[in-house]
Amino acid sequence: MLRVVVGVVAMMSAAGAVAQSQQAETGQPPQRIRNVTVTGQQACPQSTSDEVVVCSRLDEPYRIPKGLRDDRPIAAQNQSWVNRTATMDQTGRVAGGLPDTCSPVGTGGQSGCALQRNQAFAAERRANAQAARTVPGGEQ
User: Fold this and answer.
1) Predicted confidence band at 114 (pLDDT cuts at 50, 70, 90)?
2) Would you say 52 and 19 are in contact if contact means Cβ atoms under 8 Å apart?
3) In whole angstroms, what is the distance from residue 33 CA to residue 29 CA?
4) 17-38 as b/e, with b when 16 or more CB fall inside 10 Å?
5) CB count, 10 Å around CB of 10?
């Protein structure tokens, strides 16, 4: 995977160097910039003197390679105030036993248990449907 990314970057830099040298010879900027999405082992089309070709792989929609992406949760100090407030509100609701919280504390805490079960069931169905779509030979 890393070799593919390095290869694509090397091809892009080599193509960029050729296009840059051709541009330097003519003194004119490229007339066209073309974005190409390639699949599998397709090669990226060559750039010409009046065109720059930028390639991306269909199976790799992100510019940052998967091994270098940061998948850890975002720290609280780096989140927006909306997220912080929502978290504090939910924590306060559960701790206070307010309605729809499924808490053993408070008068309305029990009313949220059915809601939470329904939400968990719906999330499980969405996950199963997503898994069926991604499995080769699964329903499309």
Assistant:
1) confident
2) yes
3) 10
4) eebeeebeeeeeebeeeeeeee
5) 10
* Three-state secondary structure call for residue 84: helix
Which CA distances in Å does 78 have to 22, 83, 85? 45, 10, 13
Radius of gyration of the chain, Cα coordinates, nearest whole angstrom: 26
- The whole-chain average pLDDT of the chain stands at 76
CA distances from 36 to 17, 30, 47 (A): 18, 16, 11
3-36 pLDDT per residue, tens: 555 555 555 555 555 556 655 566 777 788 888 8
Decide: pTM greater than 0.70: no
Domain ranges of the chain: 2-67, 90-140
How many CB atoms within 10 Å of residue 67? 8
As a whole number, mean pLDDT of residues 30-46 equals: 86
* Separation CA 73–CA 58 (nearest Å): 27
